[in-house]
Design a protein that fits this description.
This protein is α+β, with helices and mostly antiparallel strands. It is 52% helix and 15% strand. The strands form three sheets. It has a six-stranded mixed β-barrel. The chain has a six-stranded mixed beta barrel with strand order 15-16-21-18-20-19. A four-stranded antiparallel sheet has the order 14-22-13-23. Helix 11 (325-365) packs parallel to helix 14. The chain is elongated and about 135 Å long.
Length: 892
């Protein structure tokens, strides 16, 4: 232990004290020899030597490892200082925790959705491939166009197409509605994965007429198949065909989203039209190729297709493009999430401004302490370091508390987030998010510490030792800085609250829109039957099978009507608000002109542009219009006259009648729309119904052609039941009826209110978050105004007492204090309005029914902010007018 003594701090201090004592005594002896008295000689020796403590501090700084000792001393001193002011410490830490926690929560969503790499090998080299329509919009690929992209490109290691939808699957532990994807053979190669059990698709699996095979997800293999190692036994019945399970994909792989089964594409043969956009596509770049080079490559192929194709119409590609797959998945979410990140950043600035004002107030009360430390030899750098240390302690404590709160915040956000937010399962408090929180806390500490230190150590520190001095000049400067901070708080809060107001008004405007149908008391039941393909000639529709579908749905609807409490039952191919209907071109023609085949019809499109129309295609029953209360405007809807063997009829929407027959009567007109379902029989328009908002309340209604379910059935149908009974009892009864008719067909139940509410999910999510940020910023800004005004009044207590003693009335004092506060408020509001006019244009794409400069919103927010800030000013002003001049004159 004696050896360690030579390295101890105590030992070094003892040696230093002994050496200093030697030098002072030597100089004292010299002064005595020069004729001074012993007392004077020692005093002069000390003065000549300089401040002893300063010399000691300088010596310590030269010692190795002293910086660590000094830092630890600063930390201990900072902790003691915070412990002496627990109220200040608690408010500052909680304020920072709120700002850092909210920012970390939103960043976790931004990171999980936008920044976190996709869970695939070299995911940055996986691209989404699109056609570009003549209107400049990305589109899915037609089969021949995909083949040309695959065969002619020089940029990809592999390219694959895919399509996904929900089907009924039986043969597993129980029938289920499962998301399946049809994929081409190189699909897994694009993602760089292989089955963990079994094998991948081969080229032979995708040939027309090949035996049906299926790949299953790891989760499906475990939950529905019982985890068999021998894949020769499991078989699944999908769309009436029996599929052999040939492979199990790795856990965690799920592209497209929510898919559990992957089937080979083109078992029924490829489509021949370049205008039928049936597939999406993904590709993996070659190692030496960039995204820009691949874009040029695909664009050149697409333009060649366009220039050489005879299918010149609105549905033929104009160009081609590729984008990183991650950008393709998250593209629609990027702008709203970045806006939310900016909004929470503003909230963080308001929180930091509040803490900065608190630190300024604290620093002004410690002027004498700083002066004493300076007089004892503390360098200005050491004082600055002390402020940085204290700010770091506050920020780290606030950051730790904020990160802890972010765990609950993320759970709440995930529960609140709309269902269509991509990659929601990737959102969590991960290591990168915690690193972000720590870096943010450190940056805040550096900013707050540097700001406070610069203010606190400016000027002559020794003025704090002047008798009775309270640093009035310094405090006045601090008050000016404090008011400037409040101005910034008010301006930032103005931007946030205006943004929240605009989004809130947009939501209200959306809710005021008439959707064209009723929402309440409707239970939706999703049912999928096998596709009606001939079992011997794949790709050719089997009329008997389609007739069987119509009979099945007729029986099902008839039975559902008998459920107690059910008033009406209808059916539709796509429920409104669920993403929209397929659209296509139709031709006006007479019975004599009707083409016999689909190829003949497609060939007529370029030649008959004056008779072309574009509309959405919806399969529905007569009860659908009655259940959803879609009004009949003219003619009739489907009825018993419209049997399977009767002339086929159609009902059209009001917007289609207005657009295609502006000065004519559409009733009785005949159209050919067989390119949508392969049925080439003409449709006679028998009725016009009101428009519905199929794509959302904020999207305009689209022209729509409704065909009769019992004439042109579809296998995937949503039944709508208008009922006064309990939803659970109706669902249970309907499930029992379906099980009686076919036990292998499962159903999914929802209320239409849930569908309607989900369509508003993104808007509601944005409004709730920005409103929370705005309200929190308003409370922080109001408390900031109150703090600055209260501090100002406390510093001017003596001045106010003098004014009152000289005859100033309470009203004069009140007007003086309120006038000072109002000047600060109005400056902040003016800056905030200017900033809002500039910044709210970034949210213009999220608005509906209001402009980014909506005067009602700006006026309301201005009144709210001024009222809240003025209320915060009133309490200090009221206290000031009650100051007793005798007590005030004794103050200080």
């Amino acid at each position: 232990m004696d050896g360690w003594r030579w390295f101890s701090r105590k030992h070094h201090d003892e040696n230093m004290n002994e050496e200093l004592r030697f030098h002072i005594e030597r100089q004292t002896a010299a002064n005595v020899a020069a004729g001074m008295t012993p007392e004077e000689a020692r005093r002069q020796a000390v003065l000549q030597f300089g401040g002893v403590e300063a010399v000691k501090e300088g010596c310590r700084e030269q010692r190795r490892g002293f910086w660590l000792e000094s830092l630890w001393a600063d930390v201990r001193y900072g902790l003691r200082a915070l412990r002496r002011n627990p109220g200040f410490a608690a408010v500052a830490i909680l304020t920072l925790a709120l700002g850092i926690g909210a920012t970390t929560t939103i960043f976790s969503v931004v990171y999980g959705v936008l920044l976190r790499p996709l869970p695939y090998h070299d995911s940055n080299r996986i691209l989404a491939v699109f056609e570009i329509t003549p209107k400049g919009r990305p589109s899915r690929l037609a089969d021949p166009n995909f083949d040309d992209f695959r065969d002619q490109n020089r940029s990809f290691q592999a390219i694959a197409k895919y399509d996904d939808y929900v089907v009924s699957v039986s043969g597993a532990s129980q029938p289920s509605r499962t998301m399946v994807a049809h994929v081409s053979p190189d699909f897994l190669k694009v993602f760089g994965i292989q089955p963990i059990l079994g094998r991948d698709f081969t080229a032979g699996d995708a040939k027309k007429g090949a035996g049906p095979t299926v790949l299953v997800s790891y989760g499906y293999w475990r939950q529905h198949l019982g985890s068999p190692r021998d894949l020769s036994q499991p078989h699944l019945k999908i769309d009436g065909a029996v599929f052999s399970v040939i492979g199990v994909l790795p856990a965690g792989f799920g592209f497209p989203a929510d898919v559990d089964l992957w089937l080979p594409a083109d078992l029924d043969g490829e489509g021949r039209s370049r205008t039928s956009h049936n597939y999406s596509a993904v590709a993996r770049l070659r190692d030496s190729v960039t995204v820009e080079q691949a874009n040029r490559d695909i664009s050149a192929i697409a333009r060649r297709i366009h220039d050489t194709s005879s299918e010149q119409d609105d549905y033929l590609l104009k160009d081609g493009m590729v984008v990183p797959l991650q950008d393709s998945i998250t593209g629609k979410a990027r702008s709203p999430l970045l806006i939310l990140l900016c909004a929470v950043g503003f909230l963080l600035l308001v929180a930091c401004a509040n803490v900065a004002n608190l630190l300024l107030a604290q620093a002004s009360t410690r002027e004498r302490e700083r002066a004493i430390r300076s007089a004892l030899g503390a360098a200005r750098g050491r004082l600055i370091r002390q402020f940085l240390t204290e700010a770091l302690l506050l920020a780290l404590a606030g950051g730790a508390l904020g990160a802890l709160g972010a765990f609950w915040g993320v759970a709440g956000l995930v529960a609140l987030a709309p269902e269509n937010l991509p990659r929601l399962d990737s959102v969590s408090i991960s290591i990168p998010v915690l690193v972000f929180a720590f870096a943010l806390s450190t940056a805040i500490a550096a900013g707050l510490g540097a700001f406070t230190a610069a203010r606190a150590t400016s000027g002559d520190l020794h003025n704090g030792l002047v008798e009775g001095g309270r640093g009035q000049a310094g405090s006045q400067g601090s008050q000016r800085v404090g008011r400037a901070i409040v101005v910034a708080q008010i301006a930032i809060t103005m931007v946030l609250v205006v943004g929240a107001g605009l989004l809130g008004r947009s939501l209200m405007k959306v809710l005021e829109v008439n959707p064209g149908f009723r929402v309440d008391k409707i239970v939706a039941m999703d049912v999928s039957l096998p596709w009606a393909d001939d079992s011997k000639t794949k790709g050719v529709e089997d009329p008997a099978a389609k007739a069987g579908q119509a009979i099945f749905f007729s029986h099902l609807i008839g039975r559902l009507k008998q459920i107690p409490g059910v008033r009406q039952v209808g059916a539709t191919s796509v429920l409104p608000m669920e993403g929209g209907l397929p659209d296509g071109m139709f031709l006006l023609m007479t019975q004599n002109e009707a083409p016999k085949t689909l190829d003949e019809l497609v060939a007529m499109f370029p030649r008959e542009k004056e008779r072309l129309g574009i509309a959405d295609f919806c399969v529905a029953s007569d009860g659908y219009f009655q259940t959803l209360a879609i009004p009949l405007l003219r003619g009739r809807i489907f009825d018993e006259r419209d049997g399977a063997n009767s002339p086929h009829v159609a009902v059209i929407s009001e917007s289609l009648a207005r657009e295609r027959w502006p000065n004519q009567d559409p009733i009785g007109q005949t159209i050919e729309f067989g390119n949508m379902d392969g049925d080439m029989r003409l449709l006679t328009v028998v009725g016009i119904v009101g428009d519905t908002r199929e794509y959302g309340l904020d999207a305009p209604p689209r022209p729509t052609v409704y065909v009769n379910l019992f004439q042109r059935p579809r296998p995937a149908i949503t039944l709508t039941m208008l009922s006064d009974a309990d939803t659970r009892s109706v669902s249970s009864a309907a499930r029992g009826i379906l099980r009686d008719l076919d036990p292998e067909i499962p159903a999914q139940f929802r209320t239409f209110s849930q569908v309607y509410s989900a369509s508003l999910g993104s808007r509601r999510f944005n409004v709730i978050l920005i409103a929370f940020f705005g309200i929190t910023a308003l409370l922080l800004a109001t408390s900031g105004v109150f703090g600055v005004m209260a501090y100002s009044v406390s510093r001017r207590t003596r001045e106010i007492g003098v004014r009152v003693a000289l005859g100033a009335s309470s009203g004069n004092v009140l007007r003086m204090i309120l006038g000072q506060g109002l000047r600060t408020i109005f400056i902040g509001v003016a800056i905030g309005i200017t900033a809002s006019l500039a910044l709210t244009r970034t949210v213009e794409s999220l608005l509906f029914g209001v402009t980014a400069t909506d005067p009602l919103t700006f006026g309301g927010v201005t009144l709210l902010l001024v009222g809240a800030a003025l209320s915060a000013c009133f309490i200090p002003a009221w206290r000031a007018m009650r100051v007793d001049p005798i007590v005030a004159l004794r103050y200080e």
